[in-house]
Amino acid sequence: MNGQAQEIAELDRMVHEPARLSILLILDGVGEADFLYLQREGGFTQGNLSSHLAKLEEAGYVEVKKTYKGKLPLTLCSLTTKGDRALAEYSRRMLSVLQTAPQRSGKRP
Amino acid sequence: MEDYSVSPAGRAAAYWFADGLPEIVCGLVMILCGGLGFALWSVGLSPLWSFPGLLLLWKDRDIIEFLKAHLTYPRTGYVRPPMNSDDAPPRTVGTLMSLSAPVSDRNVTHFRNNTAIPLSLAAFWTGLTDQTWIWPVTVCAAVVAMYALNRRLERPYRWWEMVPLALAGSALMLSNLPRGLRPSPALALAGAWLLALGGGKLVWYLHGHPRPDQEGARA
């Protein structure tokens, strides 16, 4: 297996899935957000977001806690240290793969 | 430079202003200080003593958060606003003066610095000088400063939002008010302008985002 294939094979599939990657990138940028904000920002359905958040929480990448702002109940989500590391590692691998790939214009001759 | 429409942090910063509440709170504090200045003037004291009341603006987060918890978060969700971040680059006189430089990183607290400070300084200055021509020039300078300081941040002003303030401010300054009283109506006018901007945004926001439970009831 060449180096590029090796890098692709070792990509973290928990992060690689587009919806989960989107959730992780939003949380990485904002620090903390509630369920409704993530749903609107990512364009998710309620069930879809719940299922991906559950997987990310199970993997230890995201912390989900129930809290209150005044009397409003909130489901707050934030990136854990493990999630932060996983996202950094994923970015490093993806950049490495893309940097070694030939430049493409998107137009075949 | 931060692109507020693309990055998650930039969008979170812009989201803080989506409902107009920061402008409303800032405007109300200014109107209160203007009213207090008028009360002080009517008992023979200088209205300039009301200006320390503007320090309330640096405690506005709790009020805004309280209002958002009732109006905004149930409708469009909560995200932690980037404010007072330690990683924001230091703002020097050089970066403040340079219109092309990105003056800050993501930090929504810069709004009150870049809005309340120019307006308050202009209002304060009008009470210190007798030269009539300086007053409208001061108002216009404050308006231009606000436009320039905020234009690359998460809450940019549009030029047509600034025109009424410049015109009304200049008209007020050229009216026949006693010099000693002048700072109070100037402050109240600036507050009313912010209140109108924020109020318009809030109405637009509430109209566009009904509470999910009300949405369900309508459907």
What can you see in these coordinates?
The complex is a heterodimer of chains A (109) and B (219). Chain A is α+β, with helices and mostly antiparallel strands. Helices cover 60% and strands 17% of the residues of chain A. Chain A has six helices and three strands; from the N terminus they run H-H-H-E-H-H-E-E-H. In chain A, strands 1-3-2 form a three-stranded antiparallel beta sheet. In chain A, helix 1 runs antiparallel to helix 6. The radius of gyration of chain A is 17 Å and the shape is elongated. With 219 residues, chain B is mainly alpha-helical. Chain B is built from ten helices and no strands. In chain B, helix 6 runs antiparallel to helix 7 and helix 6 runs antiparallel to helix 9. The N and C termini of chain B lie far apart (43 Å). About 9% of the residues of chain B have low confidence. At the A-B interface, helix 3, strand 1, helix 4 and strand 3 of A face helix 1, helix 3 and helix 4 of B.
Helix and strand element order of chain B: HHHHHHHHHH
Number of strands of chain B: 0
| Overall average pLDDT of chain B | 79
Largest sheet of chain B: none
Any idea what the radius of gyration of chain A is? 17 Å
The termini of chain A sit apart by 29 Å
Q: End-to-end span of chain B in angstroms?
A: 43 Å
Helix content, binned percent of chain B? 55-70%
Order of helices and strands of chain A: HHHEHHEEH
| Strand order across the largest sheet of chain A | 1-3-2
Question: Low-confidence runs of chain B (pLDDT<50, min 5 residues)?
Answer: 85-104
What spatial form of chain A do the alpha-carbon principal axes imply? elongated
User: Total number of helical segments of chain B?
Assistant: 10
